[in-house]
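Dataset card, provenance and construction

Sequences and ligand SMILES were collected as paired inputs. For each pair, a complete structure of the chain with the small molecule in place was predicted and serialized as structure tokens. The example below shows a pair involving 2-acetamido-2-deoxy-beta-D-glucopyranose. Curators did not alter the output after generation; any descriptive sentences attached to a record were derived from the structure itself.
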Amino acid sequence: MARGFSCAFSFALNILAVAGAKEPAWNGHTTHGSTTPSAFTPYYVAPGTKSYDSSSPFVHYSGKWKESFSPGYVHNTIRSTSHPDATATFSFIGTGVEWFGNMGDRHGLADVYVDGKKLQTVDNYSATPLKQQRLFWKYDLPFGKHHMKVVNTGTRRDSKNKGLLDVDAFVVTYGTKTNRGQLASSNSSLPANMRGAMNLAESPSMVDTWTLEQKGSTGVHAMQLSIISPSHAIIVDKVEHNPLTIDGHPAWAALYNLNTHALKPLNVKSNSFCAGGTFLGNGTLINVGGNPVVEDHTAAADFGDVDGLQGVRIFEPCESDDASDCDIYENHSRIRMASPRWYNTVMRLQDGSAMIIGGSKKGGWINNATVNNPTVEYWPPKDIHGSNGLPVHLKFLEDTLNSNLFPIAFLLPDGKVFMAANQDAMIYDWENNKERRLPQIPNGVRVTYPMAGTGLLLPLSPDNGYTPEVLLCGGSTVDDTKPGYEISSQDPASAQCVRMVLNDSGISAGWQVEQMPEARTMPDSVLLPTGEILIVNGAGTGISGYGNVLHQVGASNADNPVFTPALYNPSAPSGQRFSSRGLPTSNIPRLYHSVATLTPDGDVMIAGSNPNLDRSEVKYGTEYRVEWFRPPYMRGERPEWVSKAPRLFDYGRSMQVEAKLQLGAVHGPDVKVALMDLGFVTHAVHANSRLVYLVTSLADDGKTLTISAPPNANIYPPGPGWLYLVVDGVSSKGMRILIGDGKGPKVDDAAWENMLSKTAVDQYEKEKGGKGDGSE
Ligand SMILES: *[C@@H]1O[C@H](CO)[C@@H](O)[C@H](O)[C@H]1NC(C)=O
Ligand SMILES: *[C@@H]1O[C@H](CO)[C@@H](O)[C@H](O)[C@H]1NC(C)=O
Ligand SMILES: *[C@@H]1O[C@H](CO)[C@@H](O)[C@H](O)[C@H]1NC(C)=O
Ligand SMILES: *[C@@H]1O[C@H](CO)[C@@H](O)[C@H](O)[C@H]1NC(C)=O
Ligand SMILES: *[C@@H]1O[C@H](CO)[C@@H](O)[C@H](O)[C@H]1NC(C)=O
Ligand SMILES: *[C@@H]1O[C@H](CO)[C@@H](O)[C@H](O)[C@H]1NC(C)=O
């Protein structure tokens, strides 16, 4: 039987494991109450939707139809016709409908009508026969009774022969009166939780007021998010039944156009479920780790994904405005990690390479000694401490079990790496493989998965010699040795934030404790060019994952979504740093698998939430809507970059750039240039997120800025960055730049070859006898 493990595997598994029963395939669709997985096909009945088989009395056929039987059809039956004008009609109550059937080389054109209006002529010709395909879908109907009609035109593409049409099933999305039907203002055909354009909170003129707009849909659920160009963000998900499709199957990654909100699906080969990511020094993005495939056989209707546990997915710099020629490249026979990792953190080092930290050797839920991968490895592979391309053991990752997945890590200005996991923290001198343990996080708060908090390196400034200080917020005090059935979605989250200056006196002073206005697990912390931090998303109770604990809401292990962000000003006096004043409140829960990032425009993009095994329409369902939190500095006149910066900005250099300051800022303004890494965001971890204030002076002409590059690669590791000009607290838009010499990290061919020769391709999948070579 196919086996597999999910990002947060189901409660059913806990029970089954106890009972010694077989594990259901994680990504196979398992009918409620059943343990037998069926094939992973486009046909999918999301929780909260209802399927009507071709033999249902609600489907009426006129003209000549034939009924056929096969286990490959939904409920073993299908109706087909090759007679012109043969019609199938179906009435339903809800907000959306999908039509499933076969595709093949005899299939022709069919007209689809909803409520008497012709919406589409569907051409489902396919050279290879496919079953249970989604032939048509419409999700944005106003809530109510609807009438769907499918009419065979009798014609066929490029053929004089009659076209075939068939009906295997209809799936209805019920939706809700308030949340879906009434929002049908958008022209997209996605359901309300997958689209939209409305202002949730647009309050009047106050200059210090933020605004919130809901606009756009991610098409694939936004588990991982990173800004890749002035116009696009990359979104990476797990293999699941997303509405956006590619090559006839649901997509699990996409590029999102920040200006037009258009989507481009990406062709990912392996399962990127709970991967991490980083840019390298030359601007290439890597997406690392994931989950196995589960099906032993890639059936025609399967998504065709391969094992992602050792995956290194390459996304080369994407320069075109429409992202047309940008895609993800994978070839596990050469490009892979030495060891399987699920829930690893990936961080860019001062040499432009990636450090890949920890994770589990297979998917599951809370980490444990059996599945733990207590090592770091590098991409490209390095020969370090005699590793010759293979992983290097890290005791910290053993000592921090169980709740230590997705460690929080930041490169420090002395070239060492800060790491926090569970209740502990340390500084890792990676070049000498030495750990320096830091004081434990106070009051029993755990900060990493599934007790996820969030962490940031506070802005680095030449004013204090780039003294680093870290901030960790939220998480949970739930005992990580308890089984899921002793944990509840109602267990309170932590409101604690702690910060520590990472020099000798700061470390001996220890963690400084503060409280957020509201407790949160799974918060996201987003650095703004002003140096303030927006804390958004997350839940007031419970922990990360789905299907594991008591009192799940739907499948969610967490409840009580926190809807109002909090703004943190790290330089205000203690006790006066948090404020929610002027911050709008959302009405979209952003729980497990939510993300947030600063954009080149200077606003905060919020997406995701999917505490579910697969797409779900019940609370808390799969969320595709995007929200935009706009800081007050976007309301009035803003400073602007006038001349373009050079593409590369190397250490020790300086450059002159012309800018236009906003009116009223000309006499002795407070001018700062923030160099920012917007990071790679997933699971509340904002890897590489960084703000470095650059030494800057404004000429007497009031427009020429002389800007110095960061002094060295420890302060800002080589790679992409964004320059924001902040004048009297008002930020410009970001201007992209590549810090360093633009060359990639050094490639050690011998270490790479050694890694390849000493490790197997997709070893997890091989062990259980599957295929799984990404090159196949
Ligand atoms: C069937 O055809 C329609 C329109 O030609 C297309 O939108 C849809 O994606 C097709 N279905 C599949 C599964 O390819
Ligand atoms: C809606 O349609 C209009 C006009 O066709 C188009 O300009 C706009 O971009 C569309 N909006 C979305 C969200 O697709
Ligand atoms: C993958 O790499 C192998 C070995 O280098 C090569 O033979 C093969 O052509 C590559 N496949 C693709 C699809 O690039
Ligand atoms: C360790 O975790 C894996 C994956 O979740 C699970 O299958 C296994 O039962 C766990 N082992 C122990 C000893 O808890
Ligand atoms: C540590 O940093 C703080 C804040 O910048 C500074 O006041 C202090 O002198 C530093 N201590 C040491 C030992 O460098
Ligand atoms: C950057 O370096 C990596 C690692 O050597 C390489 O795979 C990638 O192709 C390089 N990208 C560019 C744009 O040169």
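Derived descriptions for this record:
Residues 464, 467, 501, 503-506 surround 2-acetamido-2-deoxy-beta-D-glucopyranose (ligand 5) (CB under 6 Å).
The chain has four domains: 1-30+220-408+747-776, 43-180, 441-635, 640-739.
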